[in-house]
Design brief:
By secondary structure, the chain is an alpha+beta fold. The chain contains six helices and 17 strands. A six-stranded mixed β-sheet has the order 4-3-14-7-8-11. A four-stranded antiparallel β-sheet has the order 13-12-16-17, with no helix packed on it. The protein has a three-stranded antiparallel β-sheet with strand order 9-6-15. A hairpin with a 2-residue loop joins strand 12 and strand 13. The longest helix has 10 residues.
Amino acid sequence: MPNYVIDPPAQPVVPVAGDDAGFFPVRRIFCVGRNYAEHAREMGHDPSREPPFFFTKPADALVISGADTPYPPATRDLHHEIELVVAIGREATGIDAGAALDHVWGYAAGIDLTRRDLQGEAKKLGRPWDMAKGFDASAPIGDLSPASRIGHPAAGRIELSVNGFSRQLGDISGMIWSVPDAIAYLSGFVTLMPGDLIFTGTPSGVAAVNRGDRLEGTIDGVASVGTTIA
């Protein structure tokens, strides 16, 4: 055993759906930016012009569904983004899209929380998005559903409600870059490893949330996620 000079941090995990089904250990979190056409347009971009791009969140930014999510400091404009999350189960380096789904362990519903005011300032100054996207508790996530049980969903309603009112509503078939395409493209830049998660982008309708708001997200045929902003 290594002789650690401080206590090692806890391993971030996501519960697997089902009674006593276990936990999925999380290594890294990648996120696909502007992967639905209507969301790209609402953010002021032309979705037909750009290849996929990615940003990251730390693994310990995860908030397990049902737990409260603290409202983060340094922002007055916290936004919700409901997303299909892909869990990688096999190493992938430079793979083709046709082989990508062989590397997927399962799927979940997640919420990419964004400090939109900080993101806007970073964009204006040409700076990284880290403090806008990768802050503490910025990634609520529901239980993982194994692909061996649900298959590989390519279509299905994706919706997020706030305090019972629908805010985001779309279909995962509306992704500009499909799950296989996104995995293949990303695997050309980094070696994807078991434990990696990919948040695959959000449909239109993103908006601000406040303390006390209850967020409920669902993806048909996959799973759900819920949290209260505390």
